[in-house]
Design goal:
Helices cover about 45% and strands about 15% of the residues. The termini are far apart.
Amino acid sequence: MIAGLDEAGRGALAGPVVAAAVIFPAPSPQLLKKLCDVNDSKQLTTRKREEQFEIIVDTALSFGVGMRSAQAVDRSGIISATKQAMLDALRNLDLSPEYLLIDGRICLSQSPLPQQSIIRGDGKSLSIAAASIIAKVSRDRMMIALDSEYPEYGFAQNKGYGTEYHRKTIERLGPTPMHRLTFAPMRAALF
């Protein structure tokens, strides 16, 4: 039982960092055919990510999502918040994995499970790629929902990332409670 883990939103100026864990059944030709378009979420269009999200949810034995708010990122730092979101994603699985494959250089020392960090793992492991899609789509949906609360900031389009429009709006209107005040671009915009 291998769980792949990845995150979305580490570099954003606003919104949560979201992590996902995905466990697939044992590989079979039918499974691999069904999941043939699963890839690193950054390599897929929004429409393709949404399509793959539904296929992953229908195919996975279990998936879990965890998140940490902008305030948690400010309190503990992005790496610690990412690790906590990943641990939450693991806790939200319906099944207990026996091994973890984690995108990047992250090590979950708080988990007793054997694990391997894989740089660019979302392009090398099906379960990590699936986790990247679940995390990205889940976070994007949260940011689209926040757009109605803070329409001036364009969260539905920029998803909280530091686009020129988003940065200029921060300079003009200041931050919202959804912004990460400790991030360097935010500090520069505020002072």
